[in-house]
Amino acid sequence: MHAYRSHTCAELNNSNVGDTVRLSGWVHRIRDHGGVLFIDLRDHYGMTQVLCDPDSPVFSQVENVRSEWCIRIDGEVKARDESLINSKLPTGEIEVFIRDIEVLGQSSELPLMVFGDQEYPEETRLRYRYLDLRREAMQNNMALRSDVVASIRRRMWDKGFREYQTPIITASSPEGARDFLVPSRLHPGKFYALPQAPQQFKQLIMVSGFDKYFQIAPCFRDEDPRADRSPTDFYQLDLEMSFVSQQDVFDTIQPVITGIFEEFGGDRRVDTDWPQISYKDAAVWYGSDKPDLRNPIKMQIVSDHFHGSGFAIFAKLLEQEGTEIRAIPAPTGGSRKFCDRMNSFAQKEGLPGMGYIFWRDNNGEMEAAGPLAKNIGPERTEAIRQQLGLTVGDAAFFLGGKPKAFEKVAGKARDVIGEELGLTDKERFAFAWIVDFPIYEKDEETGKIDFEHNPFSMPQGGMDALLGNPLQVKGYQYDLACNGYELLSGAIRNHKPEIMFKAFEIAGYDESEVRKRFGGMVNAFQYGAPPHGGCAAGIDRIVMLLADTVNIREVIMFPMNQRAEDLMMDAPSEPLSEQLMELNLRVIPQD
To answer: What is the pTM of this model?
Structure first.
């Protein structure tokens, strides 16, 4: 017999009754029933009930066993009484009588329990991550992640892609986040960087003549942490293709993403009709460039109804350039209590409040109620109701000003309204392509033109577009939103040096600066670069959605905490003085 096991803790069933078997695993739970000791023995694959009575030669040893001890047992498989069968376990029809036991690893007093669903502070869970990972939910999450990655690889190979690895140590490149710098011992005073993404390398792969590339790529960014973002490193499905249009990229990646969500999404429906929504429309309709389309609410501009109206706050606001009023429809939200609650929400978000109108029945007649209705009169109120398509029992909320000042709060309010009124369909994955991103923006204080989004995207209209108003230039850049998260980002690349130099010139960077920062890629583009484009999809975020959790650390094996610290491995740590000397570095103490 094998030194540790003849079967896993998920394999035994009625066909094994009478067999002598060997199992190894962790003591999940111990129960004493009238002197008979029952142990739920757990390994990665499942659970088997093993038991020991006073007649067993190892009863005294089994009595000493405690939770999370790692043990090996030999025993005889017996059928459970019909009344004691546990249909929830694959091994629920049998149990194993212990005849021999070996303690493979004792456990100290546990800082967190593996058995049960107790909640523990995140700091405790991360400090003792190896114990946290033993819990069933975490075992399932990590297995899900592994299975998703394997499925992605199969699907990409089936589409004719090959996987190539790009460097982990490279040059620093400004790509929207802070680099992690790595000092060079052989070149004192110089630094490598961990790549924020394989962006430049995958484009160089296209220049090298490899038509289709993909990689499950590690990326490193020194970012402020959020619940849906790791503060140090993450993995993405990175891909690039030559001789493609934007629609070609969509047609390639959509069946891959759809297939993954259908395979691992359980009973939740997966939308196969992915609308293409312009960045401008997404901002107006949803207050976000990553809208949650499970929520049917679509905001609208209603400025015309407030020009010169009796509601002085909005009327005066609209006299200022660049302002507008937007309405958030709230079907079934037509009660003063709900309207007051949403008004309080806006105040907590830093706004004075949200105006509202709600429509109610008054002796068989529809009546508009609320402060706004009284101020603007029945004619304007009715025009608003008709524009928004509302009726008795519905409400509408209003925000005004310069869009960038209130858009984020409006988007949050839309989400809250959808949740509270039960309008958001939780049993669904809803996708949308966000397209037509503006390349440039203007700083209102300085008047300076700078990049608003990816500077390496091919501008729609090419060089001709760059010769006009830069604020009108849109890029062949796109994001994929799913259930309120950005799942994927990509672009058709600017592969022509003359267009790239002009694009950067508009943002204040001359040709020498571009060559200095991106010399490797610019030089390569002078030797017959093909048109190319691609995208990158966040593996961690995909698994987070599939696992139905809102915290990305629940699907990463060994994540950092909110302060970008690894409490388990004590990182970051102070280097040894010898290490600093080798690198010609000196740490200056902070006051």
So the answer is: 0.93
